[in-house]
Amino acid sequence: MIRKLVPIFILLVAFGLTAGAGEARAWWMWTPGDTVDDVGYKPTQPIPFSHQLHAGKREIPCEYCHSAARRGASAGIPPMNTCMGCHKVVATDKEPIKWLTDKYDKNEPIEWVKVHDLPQFVQFSHKPHVKAGLECQTCHGSVEKMAVLEQVAPLQMGWCIGCHKDKGASIDCITCHY
Q: Are 119 and 151 in a shared domain?
């Protein structure tokens, strides 16, 4: 009898330790750094960037900088050429732009901290969502009002399924797990 209970006990202890570590997710489901359910997450970036200024006040469309969104899985971080297209002449006297220009001239990348990060096992693509006409704000919130970009949606499977149901999109497993 005890021999039969040992594997169950070990499993319960392992699960309890995982849950007791302050994480509401099991260790085998996520990789370090995933921020899938971190609503309010807004990491410090290597350089201040205001979506409020660029997407809001200047009304630069999301896809101008994040052009990969309509072509693939990731919306992508804009290449420095995109930034420098304007900042070779705009606000060149400001310290963040001087820093950006120095990086650009040295051909050094900016190491941005990812805000919207999904577990490695999730197969998500921006392309069908953009092609379906979804606004970026549907998942990313009112980015045009954010001086500092932050995560506003939980980005968990249940949240995505709820949206698919609301919009009449497929909830077949193959839709996202291809």
A: yes
The span from the CA of 149 to the CA of 115, in Å, is: 8
9, 46: one domain: no
Which domain range does residue 174 map to?
31-76+113-178
Using the 8-state DSSP alphabet, how is residue 144 labeled?
G
Q: What confidence score (pLDDT) does residue 32 get?
A: 47
The phi and psi torsions of 102 (rounded to 5 degrees) equal: -60, -45
Total-model pTM:
0.75
Same domain for 134 and 52, yes or no, is yes
Residue 83 φ then ψ, to 5°: -60, -45
What lies within 8 Å, CB to CB, of 40 at 6+ separation is 150, 151, 152
Query: b/e string for 83-96 if b means 16 or more Cβ within 10 A?
Result: bbeebeeeeeeeee
The tens digit of pLDDT for each residue in 64-110 reads: 999 999 998 899 899 999 999 999 999 999 999 999 999 999 999 99
Measured between alpha carbons, how far is 31 from 119 in angstroms, rounded to an integer? 6
For tokens 């500092």, the residue is 148
User: Measuring CA to CA, how many Å separate 80 from each of 76, 101, 105, 128, 154?
Assistant: 12, 9, 10, 26, 29
Share of the chain above pLDDT 90, in %: 65
